[in-house]
Amino acid sequence: MANKGNKKRRQFSLEEKMKVVEAVDSGKRKGDVAKEFGITPSTLSTFLKDRVKFEEKVREATVGPQRKRMRNALYDDIDKAVFAWFQEIHAKNILVTGSVIRKKALNLANMLGYNNFQASVGWLNRFRDRHGIALKAVCREDSDRLMNGLGIDKVNEWHAGEIIKLIADYSPDDIFNADETGVFFQLLPQHTLAAKGDHCRGGKKAKQRLTALFCCNASGTEKMRPLIVGRSANPRCLKNVHSLPCDYRANQWAWMTQDLFNEWLIQVDTRMKQAERRILLLIDNCSAHNMLPRLERIQVGYLPSNCTAVLQPLNLGIIHTMKVLYRSHLLKQILLKLNSNEDQGKVDIKQAIDMIAAAWWSVKQSTVVKCWQKAGIIPMELTDSNTEAAAIEPDIAIEKLWHSVAIATCVPNEINFQDFVTADDDLIISQELMDTEVIQGMVASENTDEAGSEDEGEASLPQQPKITITEAISSAQKLRRFLSTCVGVPDAIFGQLNGIDEYLMRRVTQTLVDSKITDFLQTK
């Protein structure tokens, strides 16, 4: 009996607790699970009761998976600030020592107003344990190699080794790449020169930009719904809008953030779970991607640092093609307004979203496959010469369109269409933290819903009246009559119009049926 009281109490890490919960979720009996993990039924019940808390901690990555206690730090705001700085440094593959972390903690503590805080070795050890950080000694040669870039040898090594291991268990249909790009959505041709090379780190131009995340698979058979990030959380143009061709989020910088990327990842993971699929997702190591949530159906593979220009399929022509199509659509809108003597009004967020999404869905499967082949991730195949020849014609049409608009809007002669397309290629797409921004970010995160909610960028744009279902049906009928007067309309266009008709008629029929039932019940 005396020995029983001296029995050492076992501590479980978050990872171990989640394995216990998952075992119960798999359908095993609780008694069998308790025996398998060597725990009492009461301990099992406690794990199940606290599962939401465990999942939240792991998903948000606020503590390392090996952590056994979830107690917060004594100086919680200092801890959060240092960890935010560490994540940024880690994403850039900059090697740091414990002494560097301690010095940074003292600097941030002073900025937060803590004069008595001591970044002791004990604090450092507890900080490392809380966040599952392993500080490793690295020889000078390895450090120089990381800091100076990986070079072509590293690219070849990745092609020959790591990527082969990553894709071994996946078909091209289940290998995906995700990446973000910035878009000056209100940019006009005559302002191309002023926008070229602008990083847009905030300020007034943040109102004129969006960040778009795109994701597609290696076979080109699946392009995921885009995620677009703006500055305005509630723009006037989205009032009464309940369906968009993309997901839309907002923050004060119109950048991709860690929270937004993780939210998107969790949604994709949920869809894959419902479809009983497992996928490989290749991403770069920008600051928004460096602390991922717990995922069940997605294996994440990081592209080597400083090599995304030659290894990332979306960077090798897919996003560029989307921008070509987006700017082309914008030029057509400008030309139509010039011909009808209309004022060149600003593009609002709703119009930009529609055009970006339309451009994304219009990127051809052959374009996607070629870019994956160019990245060396899937094998090269013989290129169809007919496809190459067919691609020349649209380029000629776009150049003619550009020439017409450029003359009418007085674009300088040294600016060409490619300059217009690539004008926003240098936009920052995720936050790069300075010490002051770490502190400001902590304050701003508490007011995320308020930041950027004002519709400053669209104050001059009139609010569009709500369109009724009857007006929509009438417009579709007018479009059908117009197409019937045209020569050589593809069958696919009529097929798409039929789909629109069916959707509208289904909506109006359901509305009428519901109103009849309501009238009948009221007379009873």
From TrEMBL:
Please provide, in alphabetical order, the Gene Ontology terms of the cellular component aspect for this entry.
nucleus
Alphabetized, the UniProt keywords read: DNA-binding, Nucleus
| The keyword Nucleus appears for this protein | yes
Q: Which residues belong to any copy of the HTH CENPB-type domain?
A: 66-137
Q: Where in the cell is it found?
A: Nucleus
All copies of domain HTH psq-type, residue ranges: 3-54
Q: Pfam families annotated for this entry?
A: CENP-B_N, DDE_1, HTH_Tnp_Tc5
Task: Kindly list the GO molecular function terms attached to this UniProt entry.
Answer: DNA binding
Q: Which residues bind DNA?
A: 30-50
Q: What is this protein called?
A: Tigger transposable element derived 14
This protein's encoding gene? TIGD6
